[in-house]
Amino acid sequence: MYVVSEEVVRKIVDEKMAYDAIEQAFIAAYLDKGKVFPVVHAKGCDGINSFSMKSGNLSDHQLSGLKVGSYWPQNHALHGVPNHGTTTLLLDENTGFPYAILNAGYLNGLRTAAANAVATNNLARKDARVLGVIGAGHQAIFEIKAVCKIRDINRIMIHSRNAETVEHAIEELAKDGVSAEHSDAQTVCREADILITVTGARGALFETDWIKKGTHISAMGADQPGKQELPVGLLEHSNLYADYPPQSIINGEFEAIYNKNNAVLITAIGAVIMGDNPGRIDEEQITVFDSSGIALQDLSVAKSVLDQAIDQGLVNEIEF
C-alpha cells in the first residue's frame, strides 16, 4: 500500500493540477461516469468531536474510495495540531483492499477551492473584477488564491464577524503578493462581482437586496443538513448550479429552497463545462454555485497526486 504524507502532497500539487482534476470530477459526475454515495455524518465519543465520510467511484479510472474529514475543535489548543483533519483512502478495484492512503489536509483545501474556481470560471461575467468574501478562516485563503489564478481580480474585500481572522487572512495573502482589504458585510455584498461565502453558518449571512444584478456567488460552506449561508429569497431569483444536485438539496446550500419548492431547477456544473447548458446567458443574471463537496473530487485529485508521487519516487510503500 502506498502512503503519501502531507509534505509530499505539498511538493506535488498546485492550483492548476487541482483545477484540472476537479473539472474532470464534475464531468464524470454529470456524465454518470462515477457514483456518489450518501454522506455519512458521525460523532466522536464525547459528542463534541465530529467526522464525515464521502465515498464514490470513478468508472473510467476503475477507482473506488472514500474521504474522512474530521473536526476536533480542541486540537489546536490541546495538542498544537489542526482542528480539521482529512484522509483519503483509495481501494484496489480488483481486491477491495487499501491501495493508497493520503494525508489530504492541504489537498482538501486546494480541492475545495478548485471547485469554486471551476464554477467561477464558467459562470462569472467576463468583466468581473471585484471579489468579495464572507468568512476569513483557513479555507477562505485557499478560495481567494484559486479565484485569483483564473480571473483578473483588481480588488478583494473580506468580511468576518471576527476581525482578527480577517487581518490574519490579509497578512497571509500578502505573503503571496495578493492584496486584500477589510470591509463590512453590506459593502462586500453590494460591490462584489464575484462573492464567496465560506462559513459554518446556519442562516443567511446577508439580505437579498444587497446583491447586485450580474453577480456570481459561490456558496462553499454548507456541507451538512441545516447549514445555510444565502437568503432563500435570493435563490428564488437566481440561476442555480451545483457540483452534484441530488446532494445539494440534502447536505448543501439548496436544502432550504428545495424544502420550500421541490420543483426548483438546479443544474450540474458539469453540464456547463460540457456545453450542454449555456450557464450565464446575460450580464444581469445572478448565478449561484453550491459546493457541498463530492467524493469524486477527492478521488480525482488524489489519483493525480498519487501518480506524480509514484513517478517521482516520493511515496512510502508498506505491507498491509
Can you describe this structure?
By secondary structure, this protein is an alpha/beta fold. It folds into 2 domains: 2-107 and 296-317, ornithine cyclodeaminase, domain 1 (2-Layer Sandwich); 116-294, Rossmann fold, CATH 3.40.50. It is built from 12 helices and 16 strands. It has helices at residues 6-12, 15-30, 75-79, 105-123, 138-150, 163-175, 185-191, 232-235, 245-248, 255-260, 269-273, 295-311, and strands at residues 2-4, 34-36, 40-43, 50-58, 63-71, 84-91, 98-103, 130-134, 155-159, 181-182, 194-197, 216-219, 239-242, 266-268, 287-290, 316-317. The strands form 2 sheets. Strands 1, 2, 3, 4, 5, 6, 7 and 16 form an 8-stranded mixed beta sheet that branches. An 8-stranded parallel beta sheet has the order 10-9-8-11-12-15-13-14, with helices on both faces. Strand 8 (130-134), helix 5 (138-150) and strand 9 (155-159) form a beta-alpha-beta unit. Helix 2 (15-30) packs across helix 4 and helix 4 (105-123) packs across helix 12. The radius of gyration is 19 Å and the shape is globular. The model has no long low-confidence stretch (mean pLDDT 97).
Short description:
This protein is an alpha/beta fold. It is built from 12 helices and 16 strands. The strands form 2 sheets. Strands 1, 2, 3, 4, 5, 6, 7 and 16 form an 8-stranded mixed sheet that branches. An 8-stranded parallel sheet has the order 10-9-8-11-12-15-13-14, with helices on both faces.
